């Protein structure tokens, strides 16, 4: 019998792989998510009661929930950076403290200070100290043990909290952003079937018109080894560029988009609390207290340089993203320990989580995210 003129195509294994890869690539074309979590991947019973060899969550009050409350778009507000009022000798913040630099040009570790007990002067100095050091790990803190509202009240001294559009939050506290991977969760293995590394350099939620400034992340539960967070000094990244290149970047703006993050959440059946936004920000921003200039682009949210054609924009952004990612001489890798609160200035740093443990240990952190001023730039200055 002669073959039919039109054959029904059979799906080959190549088709199936192509379909799977295409679906993932479509979502992750610009937004890479190594820590995507939602209600389906959260093992509530295991977290409350323990699972296998893993103990119950140490902080069940911080387990993540995704309720479908919708929030209106953000309105502009007048931001005030308390670092402006700080005594630069840090006599209220650091008296009697043990302070050690993590690296020569970024980061410090502090012992002997209880953040939650700081006076107004101490908090002002904290804002300045973190702006100068870029990232500071405070050890032996009680923030996680306080009632959640008290932790929020502490952070809101620095600015009104950001409510994340897609992340899990403790029940009744949408202003707390949670990073959570349940005990016995093995999705890291699935992730590495598709990707060679988990590195996702970014500054938090830069798609907002007024992204965060002084930002707090504290450990609730973590693996015995691994899950560190790496930070990059974006002010030093700017200073490394030649004057001619710095000058070229001044005046350029880039579009930062939250649309891909929202699409990724919806594609896995999760929620989006606020309609996604995109905003234009200067590529070089100025810190309102220190006056330092810093690169303000990141591969997770920065999509396009305004006024350039796609190829031109891609070329220049790729250079800047590589410059940030590859310059280990302006980065620090910060280790977590029980009681650690890491504070960074989101305006002058980028960071990435590191997914390097795959033995199913729980990782659970909470972020308090005060919003700051709309990024602005000041004119290029020739070095003296
Ligand atoms: Fe982040």
UniProtKB/TrEMBL annotation:
Keywords: Dioxygenase, Iron, Metal-binding, Oxidoreductase. Its cofactor is Fe(2+). Coiled coil: none annotated. It holds the Pfam family TauD. InterPro entries: AtsK-like, TauD-like_sf, TauD/TfdA-like. Residues 98-369 form the TauD/TfdA-like domain. Belongs to the TfdA dioxygenase family. This is TauD/TfdA-like domain-containing protein. It comes from Neodothiora populina.
């Amino acid at each position: 019998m002669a073959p039919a003129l039109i054959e029904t195509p059979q799906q080959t294994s190549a088709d199936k792989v192509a379909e799977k890869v295409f679906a993932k690539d479509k979502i992750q074309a610009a937004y890479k998510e190594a820590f995507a979590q939602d209600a389906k991947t959260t093992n509530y019973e295991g977290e409350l009661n323990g699972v296998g060899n893993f103990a119950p969550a140490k902080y069940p009050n911080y387990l993540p929930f995704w309720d479908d409350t919708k929030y209106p778009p953000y309105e502009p507000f007048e931001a005030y950076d308390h670092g402006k009022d700080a005594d630069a000798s840090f006599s209220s913040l650091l008296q009697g403290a043990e302070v050690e630099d993590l690296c020569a040009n970024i980061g410090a570790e502090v012992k002997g200070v209880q953040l939650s007990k700081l006076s107004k002067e101490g908090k002002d100095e904290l804002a300045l100290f973190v702006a100068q050091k870029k990232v500071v790990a405070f050890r032996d803190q009680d923030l996680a043990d306080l009632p959640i509202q008290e932790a929020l009240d502490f952070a809101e001294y620095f600015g009104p909290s950001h409510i994340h559009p897609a992340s899990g939050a403790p029940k009744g506290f949408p202003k707390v952003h949670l990073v959570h991977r349940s005990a016995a969760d093995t999705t890291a293995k699935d992730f590495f079937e598709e990707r060679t590394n988990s590195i996702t350099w970014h500054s938090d939620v830069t798609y907002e018109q007024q992204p965060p400034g002084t930002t707090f992340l504290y450990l609730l539960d973590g693996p015995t080894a691994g899950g560190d967070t790496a930070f990059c000094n974006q002010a030093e990244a700017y200073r490394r560029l030649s004057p001619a290149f710095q000058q070229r970047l001044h005046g350029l703006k880039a579009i930062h988009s939250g649309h891909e993050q929202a699409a990724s959440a919806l594609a896995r059946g999760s929620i989006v609390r606020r309609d996604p936004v995109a905003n234009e920000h200067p590529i070089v921003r100025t810190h309102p207290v220190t006056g330092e200039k810093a690169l303000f682009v990141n591969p997770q949210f920065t999509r396009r340089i305004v006024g350039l054609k796609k190829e031109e924009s891609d070329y220049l952004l790729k250079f800047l993203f590589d410059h940030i990612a590859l310059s280990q001489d302006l980065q620090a890798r910060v280790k977590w320990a029980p009681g650690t609160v890491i504070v960074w200035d989101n305006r002058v740093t980028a960071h990435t989580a590191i997914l390097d443990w795959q033995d199913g240990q729980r990782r659970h952190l909470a972020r308090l995210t005060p919003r700051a001023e709309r990024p602005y730039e000041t004119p290029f200055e020739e070095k003296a």
